[in-house]
Amino acid sequence: MSINQGIFSSIAIYISIFSLVLVSCQSDAGKDIPEVEGIEVDVELRRFEQDLFSLDTNTLEADLAELQAAYPLFSELYFQQIVPAKRAPQGFVEFIKGFITFPQIRSLYDTTQVLYGDLSAYQQDLEQAFRFYKYYFPERSTPQVTTYISEYAIGAFIYGEDQLAVGLDFFLGANYPYGRYNPGNPNFSNYLIRTFNRAHLPMKTLKPLVEDIVGTTKEGRLLDMMIQEGKELYLMDHLLPYTADSIILEMPEEDVQWLEDNELEVWAYLLKEQLFYESDWKKIRKFVEYSPNIPQMHPEAPGRTANWVGWQVIKAYMKNNPELDMVDLMAETNAQQILDRSRYKPPRR
User: What global pTM score does this model have?
Assistant: First the structure.
């Protein structure tokens, strides 16, 4: 559905003003996907949750020592921060014994194994993604990936030298009763758990790596945030070029379609409301954070609309500056310069 009423009625004025300094950028007809099959990668996929829950409780102290030796850095993080066993008053070994035998947690583990006992297809997805990763960042090493369960504590993170960890208990499907186990937790709203599935697993595994590569912005303006998020989406799309935009964006397909249909009107709204240089978090939060919609803009406008606009700006920036590569893009931190050099202008549909 196209926006054609309310505050967008003065769109032509603002677009005309901005067109004095911007050159039109046509929508991509398709992706320019490089050939990477010849790039060799060795993806080490480690199943920490399987190794943990297969420990023998009769020889637990010795088995835990072996487990920690096999996962020196990850196990320290896991037992200190994710499952704080080493800070437990009953002692480390007794805590782990209770953890791996507690019926509810054991059931959670069993559920993850029913769905993800075999991760060969997922490993193939990662291998393909890391071929693209090595293509764009040849000097970087291939990350190691470790799976675990945390009883819904943390979904994915990066640690050490670009090592990735992903919690399989965050990918049990939208029908899994997350809310029952952790009532009131906003992370388990229906809007968010719709992405807790196998289709989103590769993307969410890579997300901490992508965020680390792009880095954080020190500025608090919407422009800075949307360019940063746009770079993340651009990089993710190039690591997973065969993945649907709806998964890259973590949005329903109809939201992506709405953004594409209303690109010009969204751009005009951000200009009219002078939001690009706004730093009041209350005014800009829904434009960059997870939210079902942005009612002040339009009832159908999805949350993180500005991130999608930032992605379009980055596409235009790279298209209109063909001498730049992915490393150059990541090195450029001046959001205003990226916007200016992108010469972005939304197409008229």
Answer: 0.90
* CA distance linking residue 82 with residue 84, whole number of Å: 6
User: Sign of the CA dihedral 234, 236, 238, 244?
Assistant: negative
**The token pair that represents 326 in the structure block:** 């992915």
Asked if 134 and 140 count as a contact pair (C-beta separation under 8 A), the reply is yes
* Other C-beta atoms lying within 10 Å of the C-beta of residue 33: 10
- Residue 339 exposure: Cα atoms within 13 Å on the Cβ side: 17
Any idea what the Cα angle at residue 227 is, between residues 274 and 10, rounded to 5°?
30
Which range, of 158-162, 182-186, 203-207, averages the lowest pLDDT? Answer: 182-186
Residue type, 12: A
Residue type at 232 in one-letter notation: E
Domain boundaries, the chain: 45-199, 215-342
For residue 259, give the nearest of 276, 243, 246, 241 by alpha carbon: 246
Structure confidence at residue 263 as a pLDDT band (50, 70, 90): very high
